[in-house]
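Worked problem 6 (solution included).
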Amino acid sequence: SWEALKQTLLDKKFTEREMVEAGLLVLTEENKTHDRFRNKLLFPIQESRGRVTGFGARVLDDSLPKYVNSPQTPLFDKSGTLYGINVASSAIRQQNLAIIVEGYMDVITAHQYGINNVVASMGTAITDKQITLLKKLTRNILLVLDPDAAGEEAMLRCIQYEDKFDIEMKFVILPGGKDPDDIIKEDIQTWHKVITNAMPVVDYTANIDKEHAVDRLIPLIAGTQDGLRRHRYLIQLEKVTKIRYDKLESTVEAFRNRQAIRKPKAEAVAQALKPLISNTLEENYLALLLQHPEFKNRDSDLQLEHFENSANREIFSALLGMSGDASSLRENIDTPLLEYLDALISKPILATRIEERYNDYVLSLKREYFRNLERKRAATLALEAEAGGSSAELAKLKEQGIEASSGLREVFTKQGRKGRQNPQKNS
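Solution. The predicted structure is:
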């Protein structure tokens, strides 16, 4: 039924306006309302004292997006909420450690198996508000994230969080690309092992991408205000890169001196992060979809994992569930992203060859996804082999390599066919 909850709450004397404001009903362009969470598995989201402020929901079929959250409401602020915090607070305080995962089921399974200091960010990038919430309980935080670009974004921001909030953060590498839910169910000892082997951000960055570790970390270390913390980062960086401490230190000091003259530190750090968190290809594709919603229902086979940037993932997820025009997206987008959404909606795009541009963007997104998958798989494979990963885990990584190679071949075949059909095309 499209109105089961609506009718029940009307019988209890609630108004439709109250239900819309609470995020329980969707208001359509025709000024009609229907249940937001119909035909879905619901996860009540509670704040620290146990009061329900919103809901997460998973579809019961194969439709997209798989997960839907309550929109921003007077009660529910996704950026300031952690799923499971109401039942995890005591254990976090007692163990002096908080473990952040991404999904609802990861939290539920962890608590079922007695791992009670686990909460979820509900698929969003970690925010200042969430860190502030946890710091009331502990200064020690472990992040269990997928080793993709969105995970890298959170990882590099950890240096800022450690400095700003005076906390300690570490990263967990999950074997074989599995979810915490799967690992805990299959072998809880494996879970305890990966938690024990959690890495500080400098070690993690260098292990996953040694080639670019120094370039990525130096600007962020330079932006750190705490001199003792900077010293510790440089000791870690020397250890994992084999570059002498004095050379790293002089590079950091030179960077700090240049930025003191040219721009504030916050802007310098933002500039250092920009190549990682900005993705022009993704932005162009989303801008086209927002401005030409007729392409939204095309069978492009694009999934959330094809988007590296976490903000772009969230907007694409909301686009998949959009029922009206672009303006209806706003209720499903976190407040911090609304300005970015408006920028995409108004982003100048060429009005010619829209169909061709759409197809180009889709192929390019797939190509970049498979290239990144292969790079990350190779790096993780090296780490697994070095750490003595099981044969099953190594086999899984090799399967991912086959998937990446096959995907790239398919993309290049389509691009080659397209090029032969349009030999005079101007870029």
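Discussion: The chain has three domains: 4-72, 80-276, 280-421.
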